[in-house]
Amino acid sequence: MYPLSRTDSRDTDSIQQRQKGELEYLVFPKLEETGVVEHLFTTRTGGVSNGIYSTMNLSFSRGDDLECVRENYRRIGEVLGTDPEHMVASKQTHTTNIHLVTKADAGNGITRPSVYDDIDGLATDIPGIALVTFYADCVPLYFVDPVHRAIGLAHSGWRGTVAGMGACMVRYMQEHFNSRPEELVAAIGPSICVDCYEVSEEVAEQFREVFPEDVLQPGKAPGKYQLDLWKANQSILLRAGIQPEHMAVTNVCTCHNPEYLFSHRASHGQRGNLAAFLMLKESWVDAIEIYLSQDGYKIYKAYDGEQAIQILDKEDIHLLIMDIMMPRLDGIRATLKIREYSSIPIIILSAKSEDTDKILGLNIGADDYICKPFNPLELVARVKSNLRRYTSLGSLTGENKAIYQVGGLILNDDIKQVTVDDEPVKMTPIEYNILLLLMKNQGRVFSINQIYESIWNEDAIGADNTVAVHIRHIREKIEINPKEPRYLKVVWGVGYKIDKEQA
C-alpha cells in the first residue's frame, strides 16, 4: 500500500486506503456506515494507462489511449459491483449546475458521448447507477441521504466553492428527494490543500465577500494568498444544515501526493484525471419482500432502526430481519432496544461475516445470523424455522404445556415465562427453547450438536460457537454467578444439562 502523506493530524480514519488486487482506492468510513451506498475515490494505482496518465486515468479527453481508459473503468466497476454501462459522468465547466440522473442516462459520458454540457453535479435516487465526477486538485463533494435513499456528487473548484456548490446540492436534494439537511451524510474528498494552493488578490477578494471565516492565509509572495478549500467547503455544508458529526473532511492533498494522486499544479498540467464514484445500492429490503411475499407473508419495510421500532410498536409483528449497518439507529442498538421489551425472533442479515460479528449479534439478542450475499431460499427457510419455533414453542402458542422447576428456577410453558427467585427473566425465543429442552429433560446431558439440531431443526455444522453463545447468555440471565452455575451445568467433553435436584 502506498505510504499516503497527510497534511495534518486530524482524524486519519476520516478517509482510508483500500486495495483490490493491484487497484488502490480511497473510501470514507462515514459513508460506508450509512449502509446504502458504494463509493470510492481513485488513485493513480491499478490501471493500464501509460506515461503521464499512468496508470489509472479516467479521462477520455486528455489524450490517453481510449481502450486503456475503458479498461480502467471496467476495473473500477468490479470494485463497485457494477459496469461502465451503468455509470454516468459529469461534463464539468466550474458551474453549480446539477443534473438529475435517471435510468435513461446510464452510460452517458462513459460508454457513449455525453448528451449535456456544463454539469458539475449529479444526483439520483435510482439504485445501481454510479455517478462519476473528475478531479486533479479540485474538491469532490459526496452527499448521501440514507433516510430517503438518494445521493449527490459534486465537483467544486474555487469557482464552484465561492458560488456555494455544496449548498446548491443540499437544496437540490431537498427539492427533488425531500431530503433534510440534518439527515444528510457528506464527505469532502482529496484535493489541493491550503499550503499548496496559491491564489491571486482577485480570487481572494471574492472569498472575502462570501466567507466571514478565515479561509485565506498570507501567500508566499506579495499580492498572493493561500486558499483553504477544505475549510471553505466545510463552512458551506455546515451553513447548509449538515451536522458536524455527519461530515467527513479529508486531510489528503493531491499536490502532496503527486505519485499517488493526479495533481494539475504538481504536474504543470501533464496528467490524467482522478474520479469520484458514488452509487446507491440495490435495496435488499425490496428483494426480501419479493421472496417472502410469494409465501404469503405480510411484509412491513423499514430503512433504519427507528422506523423498525415504530412499526413494531404499531403492528402485530412476528419476526424481524435486521441489517447491522443502518442510518440513525443501527441494527445492534435497535436489537438491544427491542430486547428490552420483546422476545420476537430477530434474524440479522449483514455483510459483516467475521466470527466476532456473528457472536456479537447473537450475544445482543439475535436468534439467527445470515451473511450477505445470501441465498434467498436459505433466508426463506430460516424465516420459516424461526417462526415455527416462535409459534409452537414461543410466545404465540396458547397451549397448556407444563411448569418445570428446579429450585428457584421456574419455567412456566403455559404463559411462556421464566422466573428466578420469583423475578421474571426476559429471554429470546432461542434461549427460551434451549432452556425448555433442558428443563423438560432434567438430568439428561445434551451435546452441542443435539441442542443445535433440536432447536434449529437442521444439521449441526459449525454449531459450537452458536450454541455456546446462547448457553452463556442463558447463564447470565438465570445464574447469580455464571462461572459457578447452580442450574445450567456443563459436563466436560459431553454437553450441557440441568440436574433434577438443585445442587
List the total number of helices: 15
Major beta sheet, strand line-up = 1-2-3-15-7-4
Report the structural category. Answer: alpha+beta
Could you report the average pLDDT, rounded to the nearest whole number?
91
Q: Tell me the CATH architecture of the largest domain.
A: 4-Layer Sandwich
Shape: elongated
How many structural domains in the coordinates? 2
Task: Compute the CA-based radius of gyration.
Answer: 28 Å
How many extended strands? Answer: 24
The CATH H-level superfamily of the largest domain is CNF1/YfiH-like putative cysteine hydrolases
- Major sheet description: 6 strands, mixed
State the low-pLDDT regions, or none.
none
What fraction of residues sit in β-strands?
15-25%
Q: Class of the largest domain, according to the CATH hierarchy? A: Alpha Beta
Helical proportion? Answer: 25-40%
- Distance between termini? 59 Å
- Quote the CATH topology of the largest domain: CNF1/YfiH-like putative cysteine hydrolases
